Amino acid sequence: MSLRVWDERVVPRLTDLSLRGHEVGEWREVACAGLTGRVLEIGFGSGLNVRWYPPEVTSVTAIEPSDLGWQLSDRRRARSRVPVERAGLDGQLLDLPDDSHDSALVTFSLCTIPDPLLALQEARRVVRPGGRLHALEHGLSPDEPVRRWQRRLEPLQRAVAGGCHLTRDIPGLVEASGWRVEDVEQSYLLGPGLSRPWTYGYRVLAV
Fold this sequence. Notes:
By secondary structure, the protein is α/β, with parallel strands linked by helices. It contains seven helices and seven strands; from the N terminus they run ααββααββαβααββ. It has one domain: Vaccinia Virus protein VP39 (Rossmann fold), CATH 3.40.50.150.
């Protein structure tokens, strides 16, 4: 199987399976709380956030590069009271007007976007002044033994998981892109110690 076929036909299914669990769902619920109005969602994937949109959300503009990921979201979108429109493939270059959205949401996507700083700057351009960014991501652990393993494993992770990085400093990227970080929660997901290079999570709220 070629790497391109793997990335296009296998990785979206593996991502859907690995990120739909109960504990990750609880994190998603917290990350989505407070979203309002017209929401820009970068990295919509298979629609795992749809069930957690609060009542104040009126529509979602979805940016999703994977056709298979979009297909996997069909039933979730069909059950949603919130209209979802796919409006692009690349979070680094949004064909959307300035100040046209009220909030932005990005979950488990900054790890794979080639230039996450550019994507966050684009989100900042598209969200109106005073609007908020809600991010839920995995990334760099504060524990040096885990960080060493993250650095060792990252080349393999990128090769088999669609370019996914293990060592990105999510709050640092959000700050560097011009957002003002208001709140950060971070912890490991439950699981064995061996899983820690993959399971250090950040929930970030920025304005």
